[in-house]
Amino acid sequence: MHSIEHKMHHFLPNIFFFLLVTRAFSAWCCLQHEREALLKFKADVNDSSNRLVSWRGNECCKWAGVRCNNKTGHVIMLDLRNSYYEWNNHSLSGEINPSLQNITELEYLDISYNNFSGNNFPRFISSYRNLNYLNLSTTGLSGIIPHHFGNLSKLEYLDLSYMPNIYISNVWFLSHLTSLIYLDMFQVNLEDSREWVQVLNTLPLLQSLYLGSNNLTTISSSITVVNFSSLGILSIQENEFNSRIPNWIGDLTKLTMLELLFCSFVGRVPNQLGNLTKLNKLYLLDYLEGPMPPLLNLNNLTELDITYVDLKEDISRVVSKLANDTLEKIELFWLYGTSLTGNLNGWISKMSNLKVLTLSYNNLNGTIPNAIGNLTSLECLFLDKNYFSGMIYEAHLANLSNLKELNLDSNYITVIVDTNWIPQFQLYFLYVSGCKLGPHFPSWLQNQSLITNIDMSNTEISDIVPNWFWNLPSLTSIDLSNNNMSGRLPLNLEHLTNLNALLLGNNRFEGEIPSLPYVVEYIDMSNNLFSGHLPTYIEAPKLSILVLSNISSMVQ
């Protein structure tokens, strides 16, 4: 017994050392044939930003974007995705070498946001029997997805979005991808896929579905039992169904986001939407008919976007179809072009967490209540193209420290604030065309250093534009037309390097027309008192509209 223990005493450390060495070796031991496959792929790829600079030497498991199984040494992950924001500058391009089919144990493949235009859809991907993640989004691939793509029975994540040159002739191969959880086929051509809903109904684990611009013309309404009831996100955009929203959508009771945008749906907004009690986000953008169905059970709703739906209701009645505790949770309330009537009184104070309020292009009237000033989280306020009237004072705006976008265009509103008022917010966009701001130029703009777009046309301002206005550093679009503004402009505005539109028509500006940056695209100086020579920016390469009519004493 002692001798056995003695032997084990010396043998166990040797085993332990062997296991450590073996594990460390296998963790980074790149298989030669897979390394060669990767190097052949690299040889055919244009890598102008040197993203694959680490792809040298024998240890391919340490290369950027490569991961191996720490027991077998097989490459199991190839992550070559490019940043969305660097798509044009740092993308890989060239040919996709079929040598990649020799990486037989791949589980994860992501080559999204690279430029492989000119390549057909890589058929060898269908041989990756262990693949569970595939992202080919925005790669420029073309051709038909082969039917044996259905061999990827372990696939859980599939993103083929933004590849308009990809075509699926028979969508039934998807029914074999029974592990699928995430599917994005935005812009994939599905024009012959009339039974796409029936196919989706064979995917019981599917949680996220994104379709858009697929040339779809049919959406089945005949499903009696919905098997893809695990769906949490359903987004369908820009197809031509010309039919009613199917009732089975009301059976997708796990939905947290429903997005139906420009799909040529007809008829009324279905009452079945009221069954979707877990919805956080509801977006309907289509020429549907009202009235709005009761949504009292949607207690989790935080974003409601109804655009172009012909509701023809009083807005207070629409709001009454949401529970009071829902109103307190809503962060985005967007009712754009929905034929609403009524005013903002009463209900607006209940929406205390609003970040975005858009009621544009309706028939709303009345005054803007002081309660809007209590919406301290508000970032965007769009009330344009209505019939609002009355005054807006500092009290309406003083507490809106998060406000970034303000649009009051085409109303009968007068804005009255003290000349020394300094708002707490920093705007990016200000649109107040048709409102009354004058007669004085609004001095509070002096502190709006982030503002990019200003439309103060037709606002009854009859004042000299102060010099500080032309030094606001971020300006891209300025419209001061149809006022009675006067004075001379600075001789040089080339420091406004982002300025693409300057509209000063129908005022009383005088002196020389200033030099402007070469990026400018739209200029209107008409009906003013300018004199002197035409500036050289007429030759600006991006200039598409130039209006200089009725300018006195202009010398060419």
UniProtKB/TrEMBL annotation:
Regarding the membrane, this protein is recorded as: Single-pass type I membrane protein
Q: Name one Pfam family in it.
A: LRRNT_2
Location of this chain's protein in the cell? Cell membrane
- Put simply, this protein is called Leucine-rich repeat-containing N-terminal plant-type domain-containing protein
Tell me a GO cellular component.
Answer: plasma membrane
| PANTHER family the record matches | LRR RECEPTOR-LIKE KINASE, OS11G0565920 PROTEIN
From which residue to which does the signal peptide run? 1-26
Q: Which domain of life is it from?
A: Eukaryota
For this protein's source organism, the top of the classification is:
Eukaryota, Viridiplantae, Streptophyta, Embryophyta, Tracheophyta
Entry coiled-coil feature ranges:
none
